[in-house]
Amino acid sequence: MEDINAPPIGPLIHRQRLSRGLTLVQLAALSGVSKSMLSQIERGQANPTFAVLWSLTRALKIELADLIEGGSLPSEETSIEVVSAAHTPQITSSDGSCTLRILSPPRLAGEVEWYEVEVTAAGSLDSTAHAPNAIEHFTALTAGFEVNSGNSTRSLKAGETARYRADLPHRITNISSKRAKGLMVVLYR
Question: Where in the chain is the domain with CATH 2.60.120.10?
């Protein structure tokens, strides 16, 4: 097996912080990561968790993949950014029935987010209410989905899109006997 060294995240965070004219105290306030932890990360004395990296990339308004790959925003000559499948964040439900791949850039979190959703047969994605006035758009790429928001429930055929309030408890259920796939966009107003 090939030995792969971890990317030098500390110096990259340090450069990104300085390029924005931020002090450790200011970045700590923006990210919610303590000043001492930031200092340790920048010096390479601590390995940040995914949650810490997520907070830092959101505060610095950079892509997590750029931080991991050591890159920056694409130049005009290479204005197409590609995020590899290996660097696309993924969330799996505690029961393993649902997987969300986060396709949207971290800097848009809380504004607009989009996900690839896979649900096992009879599995579901149960969500508590999001921020006030949040709306979800769910497109069924395969048949067999049922969407519930508040007191309303609708079944979807492949290719259909459901738009519904996400500021209420809501659920996406796979009522088929096969793994089902869809795309979800969450808009925060």
Answer: 88-187
Instruction: List, by residue range, all CATH 1.10.260.40 domains of the chain.
Output: 9-69
Lowest mean pLDDT among 19-28, 73-82, 180-189: 73-82
Q: What's the rounded Cα separation, in Å, for the pair 101 and 118?
A: 9
Locate 125 and state its tokens.
Answer: 């994605």
Q: CA angle, corner 128, sides to 126 and 130, nearest 5?
A: 125
Q: What is the pTM of this model?
A: 0.62
**Is it the case that residue 135 has pLDDT exceeding 90?**
yes
Nearest to 16 by CA among 27, 25, 5, 32: 27
φ and ψ at 27, to 5 degrees? Answer: -65, -35
pLDDT at 75: 47
> What is the pLDDT of the chain when averaged over all its residues?
86
CATH superfamily of 9-69: lambda repressor-like DNA-binding domains (1.10.260.40)
Looking at CATH, the fold of the domain delimited by 88-187 is given as: Jelly Rolls (2.60.120)
Q: What is the mean predicted confidence (pLDDT) over 128-136?
A: 94
Report d(CA 173, CA 146) in Å as an integer. 5
Count Cβ atoms below 10 Å from residue 137 Cβ, excluding itself: 15
Q: What are phi and psi of 154, to 5 degrees?
A: -135, 140
